[in-house]
Amino acid sequence: MFAVAGSVGYLVDVTVLLLANLFLGPHLGRLFSFTAAVVATWLINRKHTFSNYRESSLITEFSRYFTTALGGGVVNLLIYSTLVKLFDLTTLWLPVAVAVGALAGMLVNFMLAKHFVFTYPK
Asked: Which residue, among 119, 120, 118, 122, has the nearest Cα to 5 in the 3D structure?
């Protein structure tokens, strides 16, 4: 379910970015699209992936989730940039580097969400 949430998040991200880009440009639009994708994945993960967990404060839960999403985003960008630089990838291979970065970011986000966001009381 975490991967399904990520896929939906990707679609939300791209859709919001394409719309926001018309009015805000690609950089400011990206801030809105990233935030929209994080909200979408949080809602899906909260309802389906980690349905047994309930935080007493939605604000606290979302704050932790958003912070962990930033962690995965940094990992994604670092891996992508490293692959492009190390292997001097041509345009044809850039989607592969994006995919590897996205998968690594998703794994980081899952582990962070599981251990720091949707934690169960002991």
From this structure: 118
Residues 9, 7: Cα–Cα separation, whole Å: 5
What letters, b where the CB count within 10 A reaches 16 and e where it falls short, cover 83-108? bbeeeeeeeeeeeebeeebbebbbeb
Query: What percentage of the chain reaches a pLDDT higher than 70?
Result: 80
Cα–Cα distance between 43 and 40 in angstroms, integer? Answer: 5
Q: What share of the chain is helix, strand, coil (3-state, %, to 5)?
A: 85, 0, 15
Residue 16 CA to residue 67 CA, distance in Å, equals: 20
Average pLDDT over residues 40-62: 84
Cα-Cα-Cα-Cα dihedral sign, residues 4, 7, 32, 119: positive
Over residues 65-88, the mean pLDDT reads: 81
Q: Could you give phi then psi for residue 101, rounded to 5 degrees?
A: -60, -40
Q: What type of residue is 8?
A: V
